[in-house]
Amino acid sequence: MDRIIGVNSNCYHGYKIEDALKGIKDAGFKYVELTATKGWTEHVFPNQSFERLSQVKDMMKEMGLIPFSMSGHANLMDPLRVKDFVMNMKLARFFGCDYIVSSIGEAHLEDKAHASNEEVAKAVKNFVPYLIENDMKLVLELHGDHATGKVLKEIVDLVDSDRVLINYDTANVIFFADVNMEEDLDIAMDKIGYLHLKDKAGGKKEWNFPALGKGYVDFPMIFKKLKDAKNDSPFSIEIEFTKDGPKDLDEINKAVKDSYDYLKSQGFII
Predict the structure, then answer these.
(1) How far apart are CA 237 and CA 213, in angstroms?
(2) How many CB atoms lie within 10 A of CB 135?
(3) pLDDT digit string (tens) for 55-85?
(4) Phi, psi values for residue 98, rounded to 5°
(5) Residue 253 maps to which CATH number?
(6) Burial call 70-95: b when 16+ CB within 10 Å, e when fewer
(7) Are 5 and 270 in contact (CB under 8 A)?
(8) Range of the domain at 76
């Protein structure tokens, strides 16, 4: 089964995009999820000059790297962030990305009550015309109040667009939620269109996301379920280390290479 397998440049949070691209290429990967998250990791961002963005685009071309998606996280429930997210879509199209990734954000009403799935879906649905205009898919990441495939499937079903699918984050479902991942995958499978492959170590609520194969996420189970369902959604590797972060660039590069080796050991062609 053909499958895109790439690396989220956010693995290199705190380092330059040049460092990220070199590390990803040297590890053996060909695909990149570019990070454009306001105030966090702005490896590329709409306010950068056209000259700089073109330089990054040319750099990837020279390295043989393909930017297939963009991590463009914004609070989709905040009307003031609509413009930001639309600009991220335009940026993603500039780089030729087919996917844009975002969590939903703080889904609260003005009185701080939690918004219903119907209200969330209505807000997300407003982005569909922009997705069509830029010819891409929005994949909603498991995160916070929406950290299970079950709840995101309910929202995606209400949006009712083939442009909006689930980004199943294999560690966030553990960190944020208390569910059986096997059952949750079965519930959401037909709406999963993307996966953040992220491992988990330490306690359930401990910020500890090492290289693939270094934690306790049951990846063989996940891979089997995807295969049985004939789901060939893209993989994007995400490594976030501990709350202290990586000690240096070499540690990130090693974690990315270890993740490459782990996926090869599982039979994937990268």
Answers:
(1) 12
(2) 11
(3) 999 999 999 999 999 999 888 988 888 899 9
(4) -100, -15
(5) 3.20.20.150
(6) bbbbbbbbeeebbebbbbbbebbbbb
(7) yes
(8) 5-265
Query: Mean pLDDT, to the nearest integer, of 253-257?
Result: 98
Q: What percent of the chain has pLDDT over 90?
A: 90
Q: Please check whether residue 233 lies inside any domain of the structure.
A: yes
Q: What DSSP state is assigned to residue 102?
A: E
- Assign 106 a pLDDT band (cuts: 50, 70, 90): low
Tally of structural domains, the chain: 1
Residue 128 lies in a domain: yes
Specify if 251 maps to a domain: yes
Write the single-letter amino acid at 142. L
Full DSSP string of 41-53: EESS-TTS-HHHH
Please report the beta strands in 108-176, taking only residues with DSSP state E, as ranges in sequence order: 137-141, 164-169
Q: Is 131 in contact with 138 (CB distance < 8 Å)?
A: yes
The answer to whether residue 270 is domain-embedded is: no
Predicted TM-score (pTM) of the model is 0.94
- What is the rounded distance in angstroms from the CA atom of residue 34 to the CA atom of residue 97? 9
| pLDDT interval class at 112 (50, 70, 90) | very low
Query: Token pair of 95, please?
Result: 């780089």
Closest CA to 57 of 4, 16, 17, 101: 17
Cα–Cα dist 120/8, whole Å: 26
Percent of the chain with pLDDT over 70: 96
Q: What is the pLDDT of residues 170-205, one digit of tens each?
A: 999 999 998 999 999 999 999 999 999 999 999 999
